[in-house]
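Incident log, support desk, overnight shift.

02:14 A customer reports that sequence design results differ from what the structure should imply. Their input is reproduced verbatim below. On-call engineer (initials T.W.) acknowledged and began investigating.
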């Protein structure tokens, strides 16, 4: 019976180890697919294998599956995967649960469901107080405040995340955060060089041998910045880089973003008809995946283009769809733009009363989002952060100087100690040498004295013996 139990336990252990190794291999394979942009293969593998795993591993699988769906742009599917991960991990596996909650909060921000976002993030921090999770939650918090048009709070959250990522030497998170900060300054600072500075800093942290989603997005954002500056040459150069990196990409949101940027550049170059034709592709993608936040931007841009070529009916439909989306997302910035364009369209169509009403709404939303105080707050945040960074640099330099002084003092002390030790050793050696010489002298003296005594005794003995012999002979 004992042998059977031992055999059973041994076989059970082998099965557990085999399953663990198989699970690790599957997870690594999924990560390999993600790293090489094969999101469909990663999603298929994770969706098939997740139900077969143990609860803790299953929670990790569904969390990763949620991130894959999120990268693909399928926000509803991503939300469902994160919810499954959270349900599995609840009460037992805190770190996977915190990760799933972050994913739910991030997806809800993208979908415009802002209720309970900050509550989710608080719970996530309580479950996982690690530095890594603090960086992740601060990034989501920054996205939340940015979506709520409270850019000063968004910048504060992102700057806290950046400081934490810098301390942890997390280059990937630092690149993402800098890119997000650049997008805020792009919208709320007339000086495009500020935004470009953030994008360039973000790019420096990226691995150019294996370009990331952040790098591609930065290229598009830099293209938009150069378009604002009227530099179409640089805009086209960076946009072409982004297009080359997304030729075979399965990141639908990213692909749509690159196409939307190309539409804007074509319009800037006067190729309106070609821009309108190309715009159908990113709009279709964003409608398909439910990316409403980016869709409203495309609807606004394409509506303006259609107004320029006299397609007023199509423009009206696009503006109506965009206005409804912006109301759903509570996006005051885009509501300002949509009502302003609807006012222009009503004016062209001769509906002056409606144009006046829409223009009033546009001014209301403009006052809500672009007040002087608000812009000042954003600039104050940047100035405060830059001042803190300068103070931090000065403090670090002062600390380095103090450390250098301390190191020099230590080196000097060690040097003096070594010299003293060598001096003492030298004195001891000399003392021993003198003692040895004295001992040798004493030995030589004793030898000489002893030799003299021996000679004298031998002479005396010889004299004595010789005298005795003479007397004896006499």
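02:41 Re-run completed on a clean worker. Output:
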């Amino acid at each position: 019976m004992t042998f059977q139990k031992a055999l059973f336990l041994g076989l059970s252990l082998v099965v557990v180890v085999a399953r663990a190794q198989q699970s690790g291999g599957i997870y690594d394979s999924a990560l390999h697919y993600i790293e090489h942009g094969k999101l469909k293969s990663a999603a298929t593998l994770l969706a098939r294998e997740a139900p077969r795993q143990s609860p803790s591993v299953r929670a990790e699988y569904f969390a990763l599956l949620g991130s894959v769906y999120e990268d693909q742009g399928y926000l509803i599917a991503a939300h469902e995967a994160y919810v499954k991960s959270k349900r599995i991990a609840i009460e037992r596996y805190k770190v996977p649960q915190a990760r799933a909650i972050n994913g739910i909060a991030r997806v809800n921000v993208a979908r415009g469901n802002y209720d309970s976002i900050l509550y989710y993030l608080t719970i996530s921090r309580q479950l996982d107080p690690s530095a890594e999770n603090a960086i992740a939650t601060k990034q989501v918090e920054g996205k939340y405040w940015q979506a709520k048009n409270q850019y000063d709070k968004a910048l504060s959250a992102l700057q806290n995340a950046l400081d934490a990522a810098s301390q942890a030497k997390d280059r990937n998170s630092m690149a993402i955060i800098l890119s997000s900060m650049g997008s805020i300054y792009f919208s709320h600072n007339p000086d495009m060089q500020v935004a470009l500075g953030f994008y360039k800093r973000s790019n420096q942290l990226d691995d150019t041998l294996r370009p990331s989603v952040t790098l591609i997005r930065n290229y598009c954002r830099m293209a938009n910045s150069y378009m604002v500056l009227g530099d179409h040459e640089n805009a086209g150069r960076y946009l072409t880089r982004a297009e080359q990196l997304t030729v075979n990409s399965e990141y639908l949101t990213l692909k749509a973003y690159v196409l939307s940027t190309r539409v804007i550049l074509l319009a800037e170059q006067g190729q309106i008809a070609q821009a309108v034709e190309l715009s159908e592709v990113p709009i279709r993608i964003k409608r398909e995946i439910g990316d409403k936040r980016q869709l409203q931007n495309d609807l606004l841009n394409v509506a303006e283009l259609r107004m320029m070529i006299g397609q007023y009916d199509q423009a009206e439909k696009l503006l109506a769809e965009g206005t409804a989306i912006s109301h759903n997302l509570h996006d005051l910035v885009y509501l300002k733009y949509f009502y302003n364009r609807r006012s222009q369209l009503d004016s062209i169509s001769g509906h002056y009363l409606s144009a006046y009403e829409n223009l009033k709404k546009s001014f209301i939303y403009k006052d809500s989002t672009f007040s002087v105080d608000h812009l000042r707050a954003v600039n104050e945040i940047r100035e405060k952060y830059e001042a803190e960074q300068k103070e931090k640099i000065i403090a670090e330099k002062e600390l380095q100087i103090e450390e250098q002084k301390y190191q020099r003092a230590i080196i000097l002390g060690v040097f003096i100690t070594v010299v003293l030790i060598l001096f003492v050793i030298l004195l001891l050696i000399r003392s021993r040498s003198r003692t040895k010489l004295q001992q040798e002298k004493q030995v030589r003296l004793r030898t000489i004295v002893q030799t003299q005594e021996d000679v004298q005794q031998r002479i005396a003995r010889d004299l004595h013996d010789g005298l005795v012999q003479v007397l004896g002979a006499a």
